[in-house]
UniProtKB/TrEMBL annotation, chain A:
Official protein name in the record: DM13 domain-containing protein
A Pfam family matched in the record: DM13
Superkingdom: Bacteria
DM13 domain ranges (all copies): 35-138
UniProtKB/TrEMBL annotation, chain B:
Protein name as annotated: Outer membrane protein with beta-barrel domain
Domain of life: Bacteria
């Protein structure tokens, strides 16, 4: 009886612990929407970690997408993709977890934020506030 | 930090051994909830009351260590977060959720040291149930990266634990305060096993008043609901 009680309590204690998802090292190429029109682009430069490739904002059927091409960065914890007002993520729009540290990737942008207000694309480690790489859109 | 811990442990041991007529105990608890957990250690002076001495009231120092991962903290001051900031009435007042902003603290870690009180009742020969709560103390902890969200706009910032803890009822409380409902089962003469529901009230503050509306605010709160187990050791 005592051992069963202990087992139940230990299960309750640790049931909520879960491991954070890590960024994949490679994915199959995302598909760029058909008939898309390029609106802005910029090249990635390295910050705390080597980062390269191109960021493009494209429009297709009234929706905006951020496309990463020939993209590469280091692996890291909790990597996010931000549209940001500056290189320090003072104000930003979070496009979600970075899908992969390599390859072509497509992210839907909701709300069509003003690129003049958010001209930087950041590869950002949210947990430790570290900038991996940045592209300035123009 | 090391000196503070040493002083506190000496105080706790001294406290529980001070008087033989009391029922001194040391309780240790591990509790966990969604992406967060606590470890707490407390030494109780306990006075046994009543003809059968089933009721006990205790006081003692408690240390609680809290750790979490990407936890949301909400606007803390009762003047913003609740419809009333009058002591006691604040508990029943409306939640002004339209005034609440969110601070997602990435790696919260808080070490709080508080004076606490406890009320417990003996149930039969082996069971005992009760409630305890922190009253006043202080906290130290890790400064963490944080994401502030207000009306869909997000900002990156830093936050650190609120240093001073004080129980003032409901959302008027400040800092990091622990409270528990517990049932314990006596395993041996001196040892008891505890099942605990823990409510840990933990606060972080930003370096500047990052929330501007409806009034400037730098203090954010997480109310952690946790389940735990623990041991209680009787010193006499």
């Amino acid at each position: 009886m005592k051992s069963k009680l202990l087992w139940v309590l230990f299960t309750l204690l640790f049931i909520s612990c879960s491991k954070e998802k890590e960024t994949a090292t490679d994915i199959s190429n995302d598909i760029i929407p058909a008939n898309s029109v390029e609106l802005y682009d910029g090249d990635f430069v390295s910050a705390a970690h080597p980062t390269s490739g191109k960021a493009r904002i494209v429009s297709a059927e009234g929706k905006w997408y951020l496309v990463l091409e020939n993209f590469s960065t280091d692996r890291g914890p909790d990597l996010k993709l931000y549209l940001s007002s500056n290189r320090g993520a003072a104000q930003f729009v979070n496009l979600g977890n970075l899908k992969s540290t390599n390859g072509q990737q497509v992210y839907a942008i909701s709300g069509m934020p003003d690129p003049k207000e958010y001209p930087y694309v950041l590869i950002w480690c949210q947990q430790f506030s570290v900038l991996f790489g940045v592209a300035r859109l123009s | 930090m090391k000196h503070v811990l040493t002083i506190l442990l000496v105080f706790m041991i001294g406290t529980v051994q001070a008087q033989n007529r009391l029922r001194p105990t040391v309780d240790l608890t591990l509790a966990a909830g969604s992406s967060q957990a606590t470890f707490s250690l407390v030494g109780w002076h306990q006075w046994q009351l009543g003809r059968k001495q089933r009721l006990s009231i205790g006081v003692g120092p408690r240390i609680t260590s809290y750790v979490g991962n990407k936890k949301d903290f909400w606007t803390a001051p009762a003047s913003i977060a609740r419809g009333s900031s009058t002591p006691f009435l604040v508990v029943l007042s409306s939640q002004e959720t339209q005034n609440w902003d969110t601070l997602n603290v990435q790696r919260p870690f808080v070490f709080s040291m508080n004076a606490a009180v406890q009320v417990a009742h003996q149930i039969g020969k082996r069971f005992r149930a009760g409630f305890n709560i922190d009253l006043v103390g202080f906290s130290v902890g890790r400064t963490s990266a944080a994401v502030f969200t207000s009306d869909g706009r997000q900002e990156t910032t830093e936050a650190k634990p609120v240093p001073f803890n004080l129980l003032l009822t409901g959302d008027l409380d400040q800092g990091s305060l622990n409270s528990e409902f517990f049932v314990q089962y006596r395993l041996k003469e001196k040892w008891s096993l505890r099942a605990v529901y823990q409510f840990y009230f933990v606060e972080y503050k930003t370096n500047t008043s990052i929330q501007q509306l409806p009034e400037p605010n730098d203090r954010f709160r997480n109310k952690a609901n946790l389940l735990g187990i623990g041991l209680s050791y009787s010193l006499n």
